[in-house]
Amino acid sequence: MKHNWILDGRPVRAWLCLLLALLLAGCAATSTLPRQYSGPAQVQSWKLSLVTASGQTEDSLLVIQPEAQNATRWIQTNPLGAPLARLSLHDGSWSTDGFLPPNPRARQLFEAIIAAQMPRAQWPAAYPDTVVTTSTEGGFATYTFSRQGRLLWSIRLPAMTTANSGTSHQPSTHIVLPDHSQWQLTPISTRT
């Protein structure tokens, strides 16, 4: 009596291929970029503050650097200058810049920043398959972006200030990501 402990290879291969496809689909990150994006004409610097549950902030620096052929380099560093995320955006897709591991949270934050920098009137054409809803809380409008019922991010833009308002603080954009992380984005003025 001969025992065949080795299974026929065809069903095993089919299951392995299916498992591999599911694994790759789970790892694939989908980008939410506008249809047309032209990066900044000059370097932009931003202070990013992650608001923790206790109300404290963890600060980092974001530099958006224009590159050739309408590409941009996005570099997020901690206060000591160590990189947290380095991504390049070219032709509507992100690529890791350097030896840092992929950072999906940073990519999603950067995509929300792109939307926040865009005039609101351009959102419907730039994000045609995205639903943008508006809610008002405390006198501030919050814009929530979602696609197919899935939250992408929420943005609260800075209030319009007048020259005679007498306030000296920089206006901050507030961003909330699906993981409930809350970010404040404040421009760093560069003097030339």
UniProtKB/TrEMBL annotation:
What's the name of the protein?
A: Lipoprotein
Which Pfam families does the record cross-reference, listed alphabetically? DUF3261
> Which species does the entry assign this protein to?
Advenella kashmirensis W13003
Q: Which domain of life is it from?
A: Bacteria
Organism placement in taxonomy: Bacteria, Pseudomonadati, Pseudomonadota, Betaproteobacteria, Burkholderiales
